[in-house]
Design goal:
Layout: H1 6-25, H2 44-63, E1 66-68, H3 84-104, H4 107-110, E2 113-118, E3 121-127, H5 128-153
Parallel strand pairs: 1-2
Antiparallel strand pairs: 2-3
């Protein structure tokens, strides 16, 4: 499939990553939500919820010119899901909402600037498409990698992500 627009390329990349992310999130054992492989690591449940909440962060890049972390009226993710059903429902809702926002956007809007800041302190300033890829997709993939390590340490077989996993029969 040939995708020629910035918007279509981001949507194709997003769709690919959402499938893999959902497969991994479906494996999270909520009865072990407090599992923490290291004292400096997030707990398993926190990490899974963070991955899902990053979808709303990506949508923010698409729909707004900036986000001030000090703004008390800024978007908040709401209470953390405490079950598979709740986590996957939030994931599906946020995925659909992000896809819709991207579909309503266009290449010109995606080249507009986005500023992430804390009051007067600029944390990042870049084109929206770049912010979506770096602080959105890459950030999510990074945390998804962490989640795969947590699951491996809990002896939960992993699905294929970018090719077969060590748990796939293809490796023998």
């Amino acid at each position: 499939m040939h995708t020629s627009s910035l918007q279509q390329n981001i949507l194709a990349e997003l769709d690919h990553e959402l499938v893999t992310t959902r497969k991994l999130l479906a494996l999270v054992p909520f009865e072990q939500a407090d599992y923490q492989p290291h004292p400096k690591s997030m707990k398993l449940g926190q990490l899974a919820v963070h991955i899902v909440n990053l979808l709303a962060f990506k949508q923010l890049f698409v729909q707004h010119p900036s986000r001030d972390f000090l703004d008390p009226n800024g978007p908040k993710p709401g209470p953390a899901p405490t079950s598979h059903e709740g986590l996957l429902a939030r994931f599906d809702e946020a995925s659909a909402s992000l896809r819709a926002a991207l579909q309503e956007s266009d290449d010109e809007k995606l080249t507009d600037g986005f500023r992430l800041h804390r009051g007067e302190q600029t944390l990042l300033e870049m084109p929206k498409a770049t912010a979506i890829r770096i602080m959105g997709l890459n950030h999510s993939i990074h945390h998804r990698g962490q989640l795969s390590v947590y699951l491996r340490l809990l002896d939960i077989p992993l699905p294929a992500m970018y090719g077969p996993s060590a748990d796939d029969k293809i490796w023998g």
